[in-house]
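Sequence of Glyoxalase-like domain-containing protein (Mycolicibacterium litorale).
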Amino acid sequence: MSVMMGPLLVGAAEPALVTDFWSAALGAEARRRLLRVCTEQGPKTVKNRVHLDVAVGPGLEGVERLVRLGARVLADHLPGWVTLADVEGNEFCAFPAEPVDGPPARVFAVCTDSDRPEELAAWWAARVGARIGPGPDRTPRWLYGCTGWEGIIWKFVRVDDPRTGPNRWRWSVTARADDLLAAGARLLPDGTLVDPQGNGFSAAEPTHPAG
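Predicted 3D structure, token representation.
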């Protein structure tokens, strides 16, 4: 099956505010490629099950640049990482690395919560042609080389907390919906496609040139 990953679809009560933050954090070009912000009624109320990992400058220097843009610190796990929230409370993790020229942050991973991450990683790897690698606990749940997300790791993160409502951040793909359904995706009554563990995503049919 040929499935190409597209930008993350970000639900926001104030799309302009969220767009401005991520454009400043990542650079406008990177934001357009990776994040598409859309209107969602109501404020964020629970922890997102999808978030970004970004590389920033060393120590607290890079984190402070994001805070000046409107982010706030949720938890300090240095020297490893810092958990932040954007201007609408969307969680993301900043990992200090080498000095950064240009925008304050660079996306290197997309993280998706799951109580059975190995199963979900295997299902999506078969769809997007990715190589499965081990997470920190040595279980096979990190994807490398996803078509359309080259250079980005897709991490499936083990969690015990149950899903509460649809994902506010969700991914998009280019693929035939019928192929995804035949592989185990489901179509909800409202027309939303979900993967075998209930993560909603958007699928655009591939276009074929005439002739």
